[in-house]
Amino acid sequence: MVLLVLTDRIRTAIYQAVQSPEFDESAKKRLKSYLKASACVPLDLIKEVSKFLLGRDGKLGKEIGLSNYWLHDLLTGSGVYVEPRKEKPKSPELIARLESILAEQANKEYARMIGRVASSYDVETFKLLDTEEFQSVRGQLTAIINITFTVVAVFAAVYHVAQTITGDTGMRVLLAFTGSVIVGVAETILYMRYLTGYDKIEQKERKPRRRSSASSGYHNKAATTTSPRRPGVDVTITPDPPVAKTPEHFTVSGTLEHDITAGKTALDIDFFDGLRFVSIIPPYIKNFTESVKAGTKFSIDVDNVPTPTEFPKFYAIFVSVGENPDKDGKLQDVFGCSRAEFQT
Known about the structure:
InterPro entries: ATPase_Vma12. Strand 5 (266-273) and strand 6 (278-279) form a beta hairpin.
């Protein structure tokens, strides 16, 4: 059965045929059903309507050749009816999965954009590090500038004074150059002797230094700070300070505001480069084997924690308790943490 689009011209013709008592009753019923709930009509019914209306006009004595009810006239502006495709309802599980994938992709893109930018937490760590090395560099630059100005000043002074001895410009330049070289060498020797003696005293009398950024600290000697937004934890490390390529022992204890769940809550130990703002080695993760309720003191011992093969000038140790580690081993939900800075 061929269905055609129901146009106004076809609809008008159908109304005239339906209203006529002489039109076939079965055809009337079929046409009424299409007129009420459809936008199409079968081609055979249109043919019946056209044939009936042309016959009626002929009986009424009208000129059939001028009638508008010929089949080709009725079909003008119509066409084959194609039923619109019904959209299948999307599965709620599929929609939720797609949304989670899009959110994950957005987070990865954001992390990629800010991956090379130091976080506020890293900047805070950098500010807490000892600035003695920077002061030493500044002192060395100051000494170089001073020596340079001294050499230039001596050259100018000798050149000016030499005119009282000789009027030869070449001789004056030679004398000025000789005097500036002598003074420059003397200044450099004195500065190097001072610097070498200072370094020897430092090596003999001072042990490795750590800058304390809070009144409390790791047990033994390492300095520590805690975040004001998270409870702090007490940490004991052995040996203290850590030794490169030597396994470290950690004892972590404290009281948290969150429950510790066995197999889910983890301890994160991260050796962090204080100048490059990156982890020196991958973080060490250990899951708790016993559950502890919030407000109850916990304690955990961790043996054989690997240390870097070499420590940088400034570094820190971050100890965190939390859940949901990311692909880099850093905990996303931190319940408590502590930090200690070291200077080798």
